[in-house]
Specification:
four-stranded antiparallel sheet; 135 residues; binds zinc ion; Alpha-Beta Plaits; three-stranded antiparallel sheet; single chain; 2 domains; alpha+beta
Length: 135
């Protein structure tokens, strides 16, 4: 048996928990509430990590949280108090919809438009999936 085959066999035998921990960990937002505003300080680094435009993420969050937001010195400011747990859930959802590959679960994807449809293309395994959610 080839070494690669043995490796694959060993990998297949690993418990499910193991493969789950290999999954992309969605970054948690960092920020605080200031008066009636919620300020996130790491949205740009999250955007950088997942390879998406901060504006795109902002549009999604604004709609999902039903709260207008804007950027100020690389900080994202929302016009009301928001629980961090709620924002984290939305960021996670964004990553699932727009970033993670449907097939292999890796975050190395690109968004393209083909025939008017938004396509998420995986650079790791080549899978293309139509993104039905819109922003
Ligand atoms: Zn993939």
């Amino acid at each position: 048996m080839k070494y690669e085959e043995m490796l694959k066999l060993a990998k297949d035998k690993l418990p499910k928990v193991q493969s789950k921990s290999e999954r992309f960990a969605v970054p948690k937002i960092q920020g605080h509430v200031e008066g009636n505003k919620t300020i996130l300080i790491n949205l740009f680094s999250i955007a950088d990590l997942i390879g998406r435009q901060p504006d795109h993420i902002l549009k999604y969050l604004q709609r999902e949280l039903a709260t207008p937001g804007y950027f100020q010195d690389k900080r994202l400011v929302f016009g009301r108090k928001l629980a961090s747990q709620m924002i984290n859930e939305k960021v996670k959802r964004y990553v699932e919809i727009f970033v993670l590959c449907e097939q292999c679960g890796k975050p190395d994807t690109q968004l393209l438009t083909e025939e008017g449809k938004l396509i998420k293309k995986c650079m790791a395994c080549g899978t293309k999936a139509v993104v039905t959610a819109s922003i």
